[in-house]
Design a protein that fits this description.
Layout lengths: L6 H12 L12 H15 L2 E2 L9 H15 L13 H13 L3 E5 L2 H16 L3 E3 L5 H4 L4 H4 L4 E3 L10 H6 L6 E5 L12 H13 L3 E6 L6 H4 L3 H5 L4 E5 L10 E5 L1 H13 L8 H13 L4 H21 L6 E3 L7 E6 L3 H15 L1 E2 L5 E2 L8 E6 L9 H19 L4
Helix pairs in contact: 1-2, 2-15, 3-13, 5-12, 14-16, 15-16
């Protein structure tokens, strides 16, 4: 499956930063750059969206929100952090408590946090082989970093677009030192196992004397599906990584949580990897704000995603779409995929026109499938705070407007 982590819209924001006003390059945008900026402008101007990611907001608004929320999460009279003390250390303690772990360490990126975790476990187990899904983030989005940078080898208990089963883990043909589980498995559609399946997967790894590391970039929204609180979920693993900009709307950064001895070793490797930054208080403050403001809202987002997904299916059926898929149905978290039998460019253009012409942004970018039949595309849907205002009827009407624009593009021109 193609890399679809919102990178197109993120890139448009990065492009703006790369070309300040007056830069000659900014005046000679490529057609691709112009399309990106058009999509971003349409979403920013839309009156109704299912989610308005902070990364899409103008810089001034983000700075204002950070300043407005900072005083509620820490004492602004204290000194700024230096090499991980102060508000960064406060955030680390908060994460350890939230997950019920002994300790946590702040990292500038999740890629670094997971490489360090898996490298540490390889040294402790004496086995540098990591069992994970081929659609897991390190395999799809990190340019082979586990092998190239950390000397780790990866194997795949299953290639099915779902988490591995306990039997697949138990019967895998060769030893591995660490089982890495991505919860939810994003590129398979934000899918999760049941709680009983998760327990069985962990038990199967333990039977093989392997440790369990959880890629919990989106762990925050898993609790409703499992019917368990975060400490009980994290307790199944030996270590857990969580993200602050995914779901929580932070600026950047991640945390690795686990036993005290592992986290101390991880801090050493963090320094070696170049992650011992001089000051990180903006990212730490944004993370604390997200924990206070977004984390309590996630159960409502997950519940609303089920309403939206059901209404999308009803809308496509009413519009006469011959084949479509909402996956998974119902969603396991507040994020899911939608598949339609049209070219990605056609669907993306329809989404942009709908936002520009009606002020309603139902979908973002659409992407061609990597292994599916030609002429089929998919998108990711995220339901956030703004999506709570939508009724099922609102969604069905938005689908009708969207499909009208899809069909209009496919009509032969006069």
């Amino acid at each position: 499956m193609t890399e679809i982590a919102g990178t197109a819209e993120t890139a448009s924001t990065e492009e703006q930063a790369r070309h300040p006003e007056g830069d000659a390059q900014a005046q000679e945008q490529s057609p691709k750059d112009a399309q990106r900026l058009r999509r971003l402008k349409a979403r920013r101007a839309a009156e109704r969206v299912l989610e308005r990611p902070p990364m899409h907001l103008p810089l001034g608004e983000r700075l204002a929100a950070l300043a407005a929320g900072a005083s509620a999460v820490t004492d602004l009279g204290r000194p700024a952090d230096i090499y991980g003390d102060g508000v960064v250390a406060e955030l680390e303690r908060r994460i350890a408590d939230l997950l019920g772990m002994e300790a946590a360490a702040f990292f500038p990126t999740g890629t670094m946090a997971q490489q360090v975790a898996l490298r540490c476990w390889a040294g402790r187990t004496g086995n540098s082989t990591v069992a994970l899904h081929p659609l897991a983030h390190p395999e799809v989005h990190e340019r082979g970093a586990l092998g190239t940078v950390s000397g780790l080898r990866t194997v795949h208990p299953t290639s099915e677009p779902r988490p591995p089963t306990a039997q697949e883990i138990r019967d895998f043909a060769e030893p591995f030192g660490t089982l890495m589980l991505e919860l939810p498995l994003r590129d398979a559609g934000f899918v999760l196992p049941t709680w009983e399946e998760l327990e069985a997967m962990v038990a199967a790894a333990r039977e093989r004397d392997a440790v369990v590391h959880v890629d919990g970039a989106r762990l925050w929204e898993c609790a409703p599906h499992f019917g368990r609180e975060l400490p009980e979920i994290a307790a199944l693993a030996d270590s857990v990584y969580v993200s602050f900009y995914k779901t929580l709307g932070g600026i950047s950064g991640a945390a690795l949580a686990g036993p005290e001895s592992l986290i101390e070793e991880a801090r050493t490797w963090r320094h070696r990897y170049g992650g011992q930054l001089f000051q990180q208080f903006p990212a730490a403050l944004a993370a604390l704000i997200g924990l206070d403001q977004e984390l309590p809202m996630l159960p409502s987002y997950v519940a609303q995603a089920k309403v939206v997904a059901g209404a999308l299916a009803e809308g496509f059926a009413a519009a006469g779409v011959g084949w479509f898929r909402v996956h998974p149905e119902p969603p396991h978290t507040h994020q899911f995929q939608v598949w339609l039998p049209y070219e990605a460019d056609v669907l993306t253009e329809a989404a942009v026109r709908q936002a520009e012409e009606t002020g309603v942004a139902l979908f973002q970018n659409w992407h061609p499938t990597a292994a599916g039949p030609p002429g089929v595309a998919f998108t990711e849907v995220t339901v956030g705070r703004e999506g709570l205002e939508w009724t099922a009827q609102d969604v069905r009407e938005a689908v009708a407007e969207f499909m009208n624009r899809v069909v209009a593009q496919l009509r032969p021109s006069d």
